[in-house]
Design brief:
Blueprint (H helix, E strand, L loop, with lengths): L7 H4 L8 H8 L1 H30 L1 H6 L64 H27 L2 H6 L4 H25 L8 E2 L6 H22 L6 H24 L15 H8 L3 E3 L15 E3 L7 E2 L2 E2 L18 E6 L5 E2 L5 E2 L9 E6 L2 E6 L1 E4 L2 E5 L15 E7 L17 E9 L2
Antiparallel strand pairs: 1-2, 3-6, 4-5, 6-12, 7-8, 9-10, 9-13, 11-12, 13-14
Helix pairs in contact: 3-5, 5-7, 5-8, 5-10, 7-9, 8-9, 8-10
Bound molecules: 2-acetamido-2-deoxy-beta-D-glucopyranose (12 copies).
Amino acid sequence: MLLNIRYLAFFGVAVAIPDERVRQASASSSRSSSISSILSSFSSASSSSASASASASTSTSTTSNSTASNPQGAINTTILAPSISHLPPGPNATSYPSDGKLHAPEPAPYTPAGGLGTNGSEPVYVPQSDFDFESLALVLYQEYIELDLFRSALKRFSVQEFEAEGINSEYRELIRFMSDQEVGHATMVANILGPKAPQPCNYSYPFTTVGSFIDYSQKSTRYGESGVLGFLAHLNSRPAASLLSQSITTESRQQAIFRQFKGLFPMPIYFVPGIPQSWHWTLLAPSISSCPSNQTRLIWQNFPALTIGNNPNSSNSGGVFNTPAISHNLSNPLTYPGREVQLSWELPGKPVGPDKSYITNTTAGAPKFVAWVSSLNVTYSPLKTINNTSGTTIQPNTTTLGGAPAINGTMFIAVTDTDLVVTPFNLSMINPHVVAGPALYQAG
Ligand SMILES: *[C@@H]1O[C@H](CO)[C@@H](O)[C@H](O)[C@H]1NC(C)=O
Ligand SMILES: *[C@@H]1O[C@H](CO)[C@@H](O)[C@H](O)[C@H]1NC(C)=O
Ligand SMILES: *[C@@H]1O[C@H](CO)[C@@H](O)[C@H](O)[C@H]1NC(C)=O
Ligand SMILES: *[C@@H]1O[C@H](CO)[C@@H](O)[C@H](O)[C@H]1NC(C)=O
Ligand SMILES: *[C@@H]1O[C@H](CO)[C@@H](O)[C@H](O)[C@H]1NC(C)=O
Ligand SMILES: *[C@@H]1O[C@H](CO)[C@@H](O)[C@H](O)[C@H]1NC(C)=O
Ligand SMILES: *[C@@H]1O[C@H](CO)[C@@H](O)[C@H](O)[C@H]1NC(C)=O
Ligand SMILES: *[C@@H]1O[C@H](CO)[C@@H](O)[C@H](O)[C@H]1NC(C)=O
Ligand SMILES: *[C@@H]1O[C@H](CO)[C@@H](O)[C@H](O)[C@H]1NC(C)=O
Ligand SMILES: *[C@@H]1O[C@H](CO)[C@@H](O)[C@H](O)[C@H]1NC(C)=O
Ligand SMILES: *[C@@H]1O[C@H](CO)[C@@H](O)[C@H](O)[C@H]1NC(C)=O
Ligand SMILES: *[C@@H]1O[C@H](CO)[C@@H](O)[C@H](O)[C@H]1NC(C)=O
């Protein structure tokens, strides 16, 4: 069946669904021109990013200064209140009896009453709110960077450099296939967004070796996945949420595979954490060096950067160099409860992201806690401040449902001004309290 996307004529058919009408449409010029236009703008971005990345290898200060400062900040409109207020659960939150019996007439045989988007109306795969558009636009920035990341790394490093890290030709082919997956994902999200979809940009990566490329990729796919998990259930457009679920599960597999390339245990967690969009944008934006001048801009906040002074090296557990493996029972875990973690962070007001046109900001008070976001849990540890931009904390000892250590894998920490109680579905309530971060902690 044809996916009903409003800008069909502009972008062509979004997704290859095995149906005769789609097959015919996909042969039409409108589809090939739309996809090739995405790809041609990508390939110009890709070739220039290779030089951007190459210069990054010589000097980081040059990189940070290589683009003009053009501070416009995040887009905004009338702002109704400084933050969202906490309310009790809605009136009907617990009214369904959950007794295993049926409580309403069945709309059709074998069909329970209820659900969203189940009444037979034709699905339309378009944003239905600012929340939807801004969240999907953020995802598109992520899909483009991964596409560039995988392709440019395959071009940039030699066969010898890959082989020295144990990344043989079969594994390189897997990375190449992942870049093709990103073409599919980017095309899908761009089609949902329509003509004002963000376009591919130029990128500047902090890595100079194959080992650090793999590490960057297992971190980038972690925040790509967690960023989507954070907002997916909140989208107004259930049809868009449905397609996005189908792309994010392949992103999840990419994350596990990049961990395996590092010889790490592929999934040392029972639950994958979700993060707010502004956390995702804070982590993503610094690798975007420039975008087209008419680029669609985002609403999301860039928090001041947080750096972990003693973040474990994913290549290296207990001094042992890890080569690719399906799994690895790390006898010497990368971290443990009770470990002291050294932190430093920036003050707000720094230009970051594409063309240095976004500005870091925080509305939090004095730094007091570190929030650990992992599995289903948000746990706080007290922050021992050294001065107003650095401090230490102790890795907490917590478990999640089922008894596994809650803090494991590649996870998120942020410096906050309070230990606000939040759970996965309302984690973004923490944003007004974030002093700096998130940073990715390599817990396991
Ligand atoms: C960045 O560029 C400005 C203006 O060209 C210059 O004054 C400044 O020293 C540069 N900063 C760094 C860190 O290179
Ligand atoms: C809102 O956007 C305008 C126009 O770009 C900018 O001048 C202003 O600083 C922004 N306000 C906030 C609170 O970011
Ligand atoms: C609560 O749910 C019931 C049945 O699902 C519905 O009839 C009622 O209008 C709802 N009440 C509110 C306040 O939403
Ligand atoms: C069916 O559900 C959609 C939302 O999914 C709603 O917009 C539409 O009004 C509903 N149609 C009827 C006939 O109730
Ligand atoms: C930006 O300009 C290019 C070239 O004119 C055009 O193809 C593209 O659709 C524009 N993008 C947006 C988001 O307006
Ligand atoms: C993370 O999980 C792995 C696999 O179960 C385990 O070996 C390791 O000790 C755990 N690390 C932490 C910090 O709990
Ligand atoms: C990428 O950088 C090159 C070289 O500075 C520039 O010509 C091009 O316009 C940039 N492209 C984008 C999409 O920002
Ligand atoms: C991490 O460990 C690997 C292997 O020992 C080493 O080559 C690399 O330089 C280390 N990375 C950092 C950032 O220290
Ligand atoms: C973590 O908590 C468990 C259960 O309370 C306890 O057995 C264990 O000794 C604690 N570990 C550390 C390092 O405090
Ligand atoms: C941070 O955001 C607040 C509220 O939107 C705004 O009033 C303030 O000017 C911003 N600060 C900076 C440094 O941009
Ligand atoms: C804060 O303390 C850290 C760690 O001792 C130090 O490196 C840094 O220079 C200090 N910053 C300021 C502004 O004093
Ligand atoms: C972690 O989250 C689970 C599920 O919400 C909860 O049962 C458990 O008590 C939490 N653990 C801690 C230490 O907060």
